[in-house]
Write a structure and sequence with these properties.
The complex is a heterotrimer. By secondary structure, chain A is mainly alpha-helical. Chain A has one domain. Helices cover 72% and strands 2% of the residues of chain A. A two-stranded antiparallel sheet of chain A has the order 1-4. A two-stranded antiparallel ribbon of chain A has the order 2-3. In chain A, helix 2 runs antiparallel to helix 9, helix 6 packs across helix 7 and helix 10 packs parallel to helix 12. Chain B has one domain: ABC transporter involved in vitamin B12 uptake, BtuC (Orthogonal Bundle), CATH 1.10.3470. Helices cover 73% and strands 1% of the residues of chain B. Chain B has 13 helices and two strands; from the N terminus they run αααααααββαααααα. In chain B, strands 1-2 form a two-stranded antiparallel sheet. The N terminus of chain B is likely disordered. Helix content of chain C is 33%, strand content 26%. Chain C is built from 17 helices and 24 strands. The longest helix of chain C is centred in the N-terminal third of the chain and has 19 residues. Classes of the chains: A mainly alpha, B mainly alpha, C alpha/beta.
Chain lengths: 321, 342, 515
């Protein structure tokens, strides 16, 4: 019996998000029967795609026990660049190019953190300002639609498999699969867990802590940049402030999925659940006609509540600043 | 003792003396670092006067005094939070929220409220309460302060927008324009008030046990705990005071605009943090103070002022502040290898 | 002095005081008496129980058994504050001062209310009171309005003493206090030490009692009236200082040598000619200087010294955890001035097994298998892809080889007992294929059975040619395990002993150089 209780306790943290998801789906379906309709599910999955890219890769940063507050600005910047690029030429080289921009952005975060030893929340808050500035400068502060003659270039994004799964969602799932592979089947993945769980010990064990951190931040940068491209394609325009609310939403998705802020516990599959949860809540709130500012209140509260629920209660004597 | 005498006498310093020397070097380094912000301020002022057209004029001086007021109030509050090693990312939100609700509580075009000064007091009380909640969540639920305040900032911004429902209220309360337009010797009332709040902050820092506890927490929390001081309560008070100042700043913003909007807060967080770290405060805690914050605020406002005078794109200004913060923090970080930053 | 001794009343006494951590007894059934106007010295090897005893008297830790009395009344305290109120104050080794506050503010930290009028603190009155408190220990020359970080180290130490003494004496006006000094001299120079001693004696002459802990025997002999000797967590006797000398104390401190069989000395390697690591003149400013030695393949080199002698710092330099300020390390034909980090050291085959197992040795929330593989993830990779099956397979293999008692290898390592967790750490060291191991207290917090297995493991590894540097828990362990001993004192390597299996040196011989 105690063994059974232990099994239950061990898996409670991973079951909780799923239970929450079921609860949310149930509540919104009862409020509006269309919520689980095919059309709305496709809509939810379309919305999920870009957030999945950001939150999935952000998971690694949180697994380290760090934070990245620059994801939103990187999304904005890459959305602007991608939008303008598609308007001009629109070859698929763009994806590679934007991924490179993500590498650059993530690496910058990582270097400021590891080399200059600036705490990550400050470092990324500051680089966030830099990318936001770039986004505003490039776009001149105004949103700009992609001209209709170029729409053919991005028509592929309209495709939905079985009339249910949008291609963007499938691509995001593919990206998540790569992240899952990195998490479980590479040395970097294992090192991220080790450094997040106990940096001191990992260092003494000979884990290359600096490289590990750089890798995690770089991945987060790439995920954010690709998400920006997805937004440009989805909204058919370059929006210099599209990412602003996404920083918080991505963090909310990761922590709601069950990855702790202290590091070492969690994973990208949990984040998938977290993202679905966040998008379902957002979509449901829209569907039942709740104003946009409520969503801000809602996600702020959710982040705090999720952190309280996830918190590792064992380290009572650790000073938290 | 016999064996210690048999030690070969190498060099001219013993290990203990070497250690003492290390401490002395550290001390010298600290003293030097303390002077840096002052030197930066002086050189900036001189350089700006020489090379920036329109900087060294009476109008611009008044302009600077005007621009200083809000960052100074915010810095007054957040200094204590930074000294304990925490951070409050919600000050923009609190500011915007308070600016929004105060316009709804005094005589305005949107609703029938007319509470006057009481409305302003209520606003500050509400703002202070938000800081109290942030502090309690941080301390009792053991969530890092940046995370709580980040979430809190979002929540409170939402409430701010909700309060006026998309269309900001215009104030018709006569006191607002009276304050915003009044001036003595050309210096606006608001700047004097900001200075007054700053002096209150100085008083708290100089004459209360609270401020001693703040410094002690920043340097070594355990020592303070062992003397029996209620450390948690001190921290909560620091966050409440920070939010109190932020709500006063929001009030000022509303008075100046005669209108309440959430965006009044925008951009202030960055300016304030920049000011603090440039002034010499350490994000790891323990260093900084009101005077340092004042120097920092003046430096940042001068930089901002020059960028405006030079006609630099406002988008770039934020990025510049970001880079300044990174540099200032990187310089202040101790070079010790052993402590872990997250 | 000695004539009046019998009349002095007892201030503090402890009876059969014990402190157990699980099965491990850090202190077992210790008796102690301190009279008013007396300086009592505590001496013993590292880990003999002195610090544990002080912590219990000062309220930092609670005894698991036994009783304490203060002025005849039963005495117990749950916090240092509690102890202060009852007349006991401790000056901690690592200073408990807030560096960015002034001397006066530090002395009265948490007690500002006495100086408050109308909500405002009067610094004048606080500074005046601080000056009085400093004068009370003869330190009137320290300005109360100076910030701590503007003081030199010795003055900080005196401020600390003034603070503790003031807290205790204001809480118990007119009564004798008990002040505990834990290694107060470790970073003071000769003149500063003399000053400290002078003031300590003055406090004694005023009727207060002092317990003084130091690794420096000459200081203990010079300052104290009576000395308690500790050994392996128990009292090994007490002696009047007048009747003691260094030789007597050395004899009392060392224990019986254990048989060579316990440490498997019969499997001790003869010195191989190949040098695994050459250490040349390495120094770390303010910690140790000009340490030079060769580490041969297959040998166990013991680096012994008391706490603060610099032996731990030498180890952290060798395993890449710290950078020396000068000197070179030569390993595998390459010369280094320092390793960038432990990862680089590991690339050249150097791995450390740290002292604090929970903080540095294992990653508590990861599994046993992951902990084992973490120093050599490549072992479970093929073409860059990690095989989790291979990880578990390797782990199970080593769990069997080292007879680690555990459920699944996927269990979190924090569920294991100390001994089993340490065996996992050793498994990790062997999987890492490191050729040089730095073992920092490898048997700390480990039960007796596992201890013996760990000794066997060390012999197994050295027989395979691995070179080992060891920091031991006891002198007995040092001598038993090592093939060579390097004694460090005050940051210098002062003596080296060969320890062949058949002619191990006596403990007394070595402790002479350590203290």
């Amino acid at each position: 019996m105690p063994a059974l209780a232990r099994v239950f306790r061990d898996h409670l943290s991973s079951l909780m998000p799923l239970l929450c998801l079921a609860l949310v789906l149930g509540v919104f379906t009862s409020m509006n029967a269309n919520f689980l309709g095919v059309y709305n599910i496709t809509s939810i999955l379309t919305d999920t795609a870009p957030l999945l890219l950001v939150a999935g890769s952000l998971t690694f940063v949180l697994l380290l026990g760090c934070i990245d507050l620059s994801t939103g600005s990187i999304i904005s910047c890459s959305c602007v660049i991608a939008g303008l690029y598609i308007s001009e030429t629109g070859s698929p080289v763009m994806l590679v190019l934007m991924a490179l921009m993500g590498v650059l952005a993530g690496l910058l975060n990582g270097l400021v953190y590891t080399l200059l030893r600036v705490p990550t929340f400050v470092a990324t808050l500051c680089t966030s300002a830099v990318w936001q500035c770039a986004a505003l400068l490039i776009s001149d502060g105004k949103p700009k639609g992609i001209p209709i003659k170029q729409w053919s270039v991005i028509n592929w994004s309209k495709f939905t498999l079985f009339d249910l799964f949008p291609i963007t969602f499938l691509v995001a799932l593919g990206f998540l699969a790569i992240l899952f592979f990195i998490q479980n089947r590479t040395r970097v993945g294992k090192s991220i867990y080790a450094v997040g769980a106990n940096e001191k010990a990992s260092r003494m064990m000979g884990v290359a802590t600096t490289w590990t951190k750089l890798a995690a931040f770089t991945l987060a940068g790439v995920g954010s940049a690709l998400a920006g491209v997805f937004y440009a394609i989805k909204l058919r325009s370059s929006l210099p402030q599209v990412g602003t609310p996404l920083t918080l939403m991505a963090i909310a998705a990761v922590v709601l999925g069950g990855t702790t802020l202290t590091g070492g516990i969690g994973g990208v599959l949990r984040t998938l659940v977290g993202v679905l949860l966040v998008i379902a809540i957002q979509n449901g709130l829209n569907l039942v006609g709740v104003d946009a500012f409520w969503q801000q209140i809602c996600f702020g509260t959710l982040v705090i509540v999720a952190i309280i629920l996830n918190a590792d209660k064992s380290g009572r004597d650790i000073i938290i600043k | 003792m016999a064996n210690s005498a048999s030690l070969p006498g190498r060099g001219d310093l013993t290990i203990a003396e070497e250690f003492a020397q290390k401490i002395a070097d550290e001390r010298r380094h600290n003293q030097l670092m303390q002077m840096v912000p002052g030197i930066i301020l002086a050189s900036f002022a001189v350089l700006a006067s020489l090379f920036v057209g329109g900087f060294f004029t009476v109008t611009n001086a008044i302009n600077i005094l005007n621009q200083i007021s809000i960052p100074l109030i915010l810095a007054t509050g957040i200094t204590n939070v930074i000294i304990i090693g925490g951070i409050d990312l919600s000050i923009e939100g609190v500011m915007g929220f308070c600016a929004s609700i105060v316009t709804l509580l005094v005589l305005n075009k949107k609703n029938s409220m007319d509470l006057g000064v009481l409305g302003m007091a209520l606003t500050v009380a509400a703002g202070t309460f938000i800081g109290f909640v942030t502090g309690v969540l941080h301390v009792k639920m053991r969530i890092p302060s940046f995370m709580v305040s980040f979430g809190m900032g979002s929540v409170i911004t939402g409430f701010g927008i909700m309060s006026y429902g998309g269309k900001p209220a215009t104030v018709e309360y006569a006191l607002f324009p009276a304050i915003s337009q009044g001036s003595i010797l050309g210096i606006p009332y608001l700047s004097f008030m900001a200075l007054g709040i700053f002096l209150v902050g100085c008083f708290i820092q100089k004459y209360t046990a609270f401020a001693r506890a703040i410094y002690a927490i920043g340097d070594n929390e355990g020592v303070l705990r062992s003397t029996g001081v209620n450390v948690d309560w001190v921290k909560i008070k620091a966050f409440a005071w920070c939010a109190c100042c932020a709500s006063l700043a929001g009030l000022f913003g509303a008075i100046r605009l005669n209108r309440g909007e959430v965006i009044i807060g925008q951009g202030n967080l960055f300016t304030t943090i920049t000011a603090l770290v440039v002034g010499g405060a350490s994000l790891a805690g323990g260093k900084g103070g009101m005077l340092e914050s004042l120097v920092g605020v003046v430096i940042v406002v001068i930089i901002q002022n020059c960028m405006i005078l030079l006609g630099i794109n406002p988008y770039i200004q934020e990025a510049v502040k970001g880079v300044i913060i990174i540099l200032a923090v990187a310089l202040s970080v101790t070079r010790g290898k052993k402590d872990f930053v997250k | 002095m000695s004539q009046s001794e019998p009349e002095k009343p007892v201030l503090f006494s402890a009876e059969r005081l014990s402190r157990y951590y699980g099965d491990f007894g850090a202190l077992r059934e210790v008796d102690l008496t301190v009279k008013e106007g007396e300086i009592v010295g505590l001496i013993g090897e590292n880990g003999a129980g002195k610090s544990t005893l002080l912590k219990m008297i000062a309220g930092v830790e609670q005894p698991t058994a036994g009783q304490m009395f203060m002025q005849g009344r039963p005495y117990s305290c749950r916090t240092p504050l509690d102890a202060n109120v009852q007349g006991v104050g401790m000056v901690f080794q690592e200073q408990a001062l807030i560096r960015n506050l002034t001397v006066a503010q530090n002395i009265f930290l948490g007690r500002e209310d006495h100086f408050r009028r109308h909500g405002v603190i009067s610094w004048q009155r606080m500074n005046a009171a601080a000056a009085r408190a400093l004068a009370a220990i003869g330190m009137g020359s320290i300005p109360p309005e100076k910030k701590i970080w503007d003081l030199n180290f010795a003055s900080r130490q005196m401020v600390e003493i003034a603070k503790v003494f003031d807290i205790v004496s204001t809480a118990n006006p007119g009564e004798s206090s008990l002040i505990l000094l834990d290694e107060p001299t470790s970073v003071l120079n000769e003149a500063e030490c003399q000053l400290l001693f002078q003031e300590t004696r003055r406090l004694r002459d005023e009727g207060h009692a002092i317990i003084f802990v130091s690794h420096r025997l000459n200081e203990v002999l010079a300052l104290t009236d009576r000395i308690y000797v500790f050994k392996d967590g128990t009292g090994a006797g007490e002696v009047k200082t007048q009747e003691a000398d260094a030789q007597i104390l050395y004899r009392m401190m060392v224990g019986h040598a254990t048989t060579g069989q316990y440490y498997k000395t019969e499997r001790q390697n003869l010195r191989e000619p190949e040098v695994a690591l050459r250490v040349r003149d390495i120094s770390l400013k303010g910690i140790f200087r000009e340490v030079t030695f060769d580490l041969h393949q297959g040998e166990v080199l013991g680096l012994c010294g008391v706490e603060g002698s610099g032996n731990e710092a030498v180890c952290s330099v060798i395993c890449g955890d710290a950078s020396p300020s000068s000197g070179t390390l030569e390993v595998a034909g390459t010369t280094f001035t320092s390793f960038a980090n432990p990862a680089e050291a590991l690339r050249y085959g150097i791995l450390s097994i740290p002292k604090e197992r929970r903080e540095e040795g294992v990653i508590g929330i990861l599994s046993i298998a992951e902990n084992m593989i973490m120093s050599n993830l490549k072992a479970a990779c093929s073409a860059g892809v990690l095989s989790n099956r291979r990880v578990s397979q390797i782990a199970r293999e080593w769990v069997g080889k080292l007879r680690i008692k555990c459920g699944q290898v996927s269990d979190r390592i924090m569920r294991l007992s100390g001994g089993n967790a340490q065996k996992v750490v050793f498994a990790r060291a062997m999987i890492s294929k490191a050729r040089i191991l730095v073992l920092n207290h490898p048997t700390r917090g480990v039960d007796v059975g596992s201890k013996e297995e760990i000794y066997t493991l060390i012999r197994d590894m050295t027989n395979l040619g691995v070179a080992v540097i060891i920091l031991g828990d006891t002198l007995d362990e040092y001598i038993g395990l090592s093939s060579r001993l390097l004694v460090m004192k005050d940051g210098q390597a002062i003596r080296s002993f060969d320890c062949p299996p058949d002619a191990k040196p006596e403990q007394v011989e070595i402790i002479k150089y350590m203290m």
